[in-house]
Amino acid sequence: IIKEVLPDGVNISKEARSAVSRAASVFVLYATSCANNFAMEGKPMEEMEFQRFVTPLKEALEAYRREQKGKKEASEQKKKDKDKKADSEEQAKNRDEDNDEMRKDLEKEEEPEIKLPASVES
């Protein structure tokens, strides 16, 4: 992240990276602690004096929710399509099995034997 922010050709020492990393960790812990303390009031960002982040965060949250809803709907549609395909394949298989069974039954049936009078047989 640090390299992405700095212009090309600018190097940063390991100690500086470590310091930024520690500061970020402290900030996250602070934000988490404040959020827990103010969550019951429903306005932790305002209490922590981060009002300028409220609108962008709400917009990002709404975009995330829309994306998740779209993914969920796509997943449900995919599952329905898969179930539909499986059902049609199962029906085709059952139909083929029934046809095979009927064919075998017809093959097993013997033609009725017609008995002719003895005078006609000779």
Automatic annotation (TrEMBL):
<dbReference type="GO" id="GO:0031490">
    <property type="term" value="F:chromatin DNA binding"/>
</dbReference>
<protein>
    <recommendedName>
        <fullName>Transcription factor CBF/NF-Y/archaeal histone domain-containing protein</fullName>
    </recommendedName>
</protein>
<dbReference type="GO" id="GO:0008622">
    <property type="term" value="C:epsilon DNA polymerase complex"/>
</dbReference>
<dbReference type="GO" id="GO:0008623">
    <property type="term" value="C:CHRAC"/>
</dbReference>
<feature type="compositionally biased region" description="Basic and acidic residues">
    <location>
        <begin position="64"/>
        <end position="107"/>
    </location>
</feature>
<dbReference type="GO" id="GO:0006974">
    <property type="term" value="P:DNA damage response"/>
</dbReference>
<dbReference type="GO" id="GO:0006272">
    <property type="term" value="P:leading strand elongation"/>
</dbReference>
<feature type="region of interest" description="Disordered">
    <location>
        <begin position="64"/>
        <end position="122"/>
    </location>
</feature>
<keyword id="KW-0539">Nucleus</keyword>
<dbReference type="GO" id="GO:0031507">
    <property type="term" value="P:heterochromatin formation"/>
</dbReference>
<dbReference type="InterPro" id="IPR009072">
    <property type="entry name" value="Histone-fold"/>
</dbReference>
<dbReference type="GO" id="GO:0046982">
    <property type="term" value="F:protein heterodimerization activity"/>
</dbReference>
<dbReference type="InterPro" id="IPR051377">
    <property type="entry name" value="DNA_Pol-Epsilon_Subunit"/>
</dbReference>
